[in-house]
Amino acid sequence: MTMDPASQNSSDSPTRDPKVLSIECLKGSSKADEWTGDMLRTADIVEEFRIGGSANSSIRFKEPFENGKTGVHKILQDAYKKKHTSILVRVRRGPHHFSELHACIVPNDSTGKKQYVLRSISDPNYVFGFLDRTEAECFELQASRMVKALTRTRLQDGYVSYPWERRMQEPLSVPNTSNFLSMLLLPTASDRECSRYNDVEDTLGRANSWLHAAQASGVPVVFMNIQTESLLTKISGETASSTVNAGSLSDLSNLANASLYGFEDYHGIDIGVVRAVRVWYAPIGGELSIEIKLKESDEKLGFAISRTEEGFIFISSVFDGQEDVAVTRSGLRDLYKLATETRRLLVVSRVSNQKVLPWMVSSTGAIRCYDTVSLSQKLSLHRHTRVPILMHVFLWDRALAKASSSGGGSTRTRSPLEVQLASEPNENQIHPFFRRTQSSQPISDVSLSGPRLERDTAGELSFRFHDFSLSSNWV
Known about the structure:
The protein is α+β, with helices and mostly antiparallel strands. About 20% of the residues lie in helices and about 25% in strands. A 7-stranded antiparallel beta sheet has the order 1-7-6-5-4-2-3. A hairpin with a 7-residue loop joins β2 (about 45-50) and β3. The longest helix has 18 residues, at about 135-150.
């Protein structure tokens, strides 16, 4: 049945706003602090409720409710005595938002007198009752509650699983390795005891000169970024006494350009912080993979490898005789000719997916890079075992990579990046020229001079090209 509308409480005068029946939260839960539609909140305006809990229930009461809270409490008491404890409450938030909650009628003995409240079916910890308020008061409480919820709400973070094994295989051009290329330069020692080091500005200058020299020799790379890296080490003796102390905030001004500073830990051990410089670079046209397939009749691969003073391995010569040789079948010879025509070096970046690029400069100034002798031996073993060689080279034009992937010929067009670098030279790109050897021969003809390869003593794992013989670098 539906109650007939009646007058408001006797306490309401015509000049005052009429009272409405609103929700009053008596006992909250974990969900009670959230602004969600599945929980009724304080100051929600009651539109109707149905005894029986179903949408088709015949015992329905709609606003306005006779005698407000007192009249509704009498309805709840009668329903509880008749064992009709299921109730569905429909409320209004603001002018247009509605919400419903299924609850049960339970007695509330904590007040000292017989009263009835509603307990949520989905969350028994949530208990609420009714209270008479004006509609303006309800809207004000609802707005303030949302503002408080906004200020209290914090973004949550956590850990989620990630398919690293699949991602390390699928998106990368070379599985399980990065395309980020860099060179780490340690500060140069200024004395033989390696107790004092040049400042950060000196290391930055050496990084700058290394990159410019590589570009000038024909290595097709561009500058990407530069940063300092802090490396911890244990220091003692003269090194500890000569370093800048970082024991207090007043010492920070002295560290701006220091490449080595120290501090003492809790155990009294002198710790040194070395400020190295890492320069990031990238090939102009990306990397291109070349697979050299071998035959039983192959007696040689048909190319020679050399290394620049900056540590880059490159193809220095190719065999230009027979057509049925590995260097010709793989297309490496045509690519080498294009490189020489554009005054670039055909730099080898990876062999069998392993990087063969220089990666560090020691404090003595020696560049740590790969030995061409061991690399030539490994390539020769590929030829003897007939295992295909997977080689990556630097490209100087992105159009070459597109032409290679689409099966195009040797015709090339200049990419916008190359045009920009050629027309607007800056500190990141120098017009390349071939560096000459000690015999003043072009690097493309170096294989005809009959020199030799020697190891130097500049560092533990450093090598320098003086001259190399025809048999040591041809494979």
